[in-house]
């Protein structure tokens, strides 16, 4: 009897273990796949490699309750639903014989609301609409850095790296002091150019899980652990949607009574008003080509190709509860995809007209027009 019970127990445990470890299977004949984030449209080319176990794909930060990810191979597709901080494994079966263990994961959300801090520093803005603060790298090098919400990590110019950096730079061990707080865990990238008069730029992700206040009226940047209690009653709110390592907000535009509403890259590092994707807008039925042309310039593409860029008059742009009129915007005649996706860009010549709270806990931008709201646009002078 004991022997029989032991056999039953082994059988039960084996079946239970098999049930627990059984994973969804996605079939493929070729080694190429596409991973698609349904909420933001991000498409990523994926190489199926059975030698990597697991091969991990990390989704963009989840702003709402969950996210659907679709994986497509040459012969099959599979949908995976993720919650914040969750990870799920699947098997991609290559040519019915090689198993590629693939993990789709969301990083655990950051939230500093259980702490108590308020770090205030001087916020500078120059004539080119570049916003910047003083920072210290590795307790040695004092730098002027552009706060660029259209990027992530830390980017330093080649000139800065060559002539200003005296400290030793090591992957994963660098410390950046902004105000009284120290930040680490970022990657340093080189670049040829950055915002006018600065040594480099840092992205929004240094403040993930915090609240960032940009007050142009007082010339202050404040990093909060908690959203001040009076913000929701005094500011209008605009939801955030994350796309890869940047974020977007909804913007409405109007031309000749035709309205269009879409998600725009929120980019304090872009110095002009807005960059509009002309072909995309035309496909959406918006009369971009009917806007009055103010001037025309030629911009070089990544391959050295010439791209005509027109500064045209947009009749109105709505952000939150505020409507701006007669804005000189940059209109692209050819699409310039961001991470493979076409989108429009909202720049700092518009964004500086609002005092804002960037809530990276609840994923909301709170905005209120400030004393710059009616200043003349550079291209209108």
What does this structure look like?
It is a single chain. With 381 residues, the protein is mainly beta. The protein is 10% helix and 47% strand. It contains five helices and 30 strands. It has helices at residues 2-21, 158-163, 231-234, 278-283, 348-351, and strands at residues 25-28, 32-37, 43-47, 55-58, 66-72, 77-83, 87-94, 98-105, 118-122, 124-125, 131-137, 141-147, 154-157, 175-178, 181-184, 188-191, 200-202, 211-215, 220-224, 236-239, 241-243, 246-255, 258-266, 274-277, 292-300, 306-319, 322-332, 344-346, 354-359, 364-369. Strands 10, 11, 12, 13, 14, 15, 16 and 17 form an eight-stranded mixed β-sheet that branches. Strands 9-19-18-29-30-20 form a six-stranded antiparallel β-sheet. It is globular and about 65 Å long. The chain starts with a helix and ends in a 12-residue tail after the last strand. The relative contact order is 0.13. The model is unreliable at 1-20 (pLDDT under 50). Keywords: Signal. Residues 1-19 form the signal peptide. This is Aspartyl protease. InterPro entries: Peptidase_aspartic_dom_sf (IPR021109).
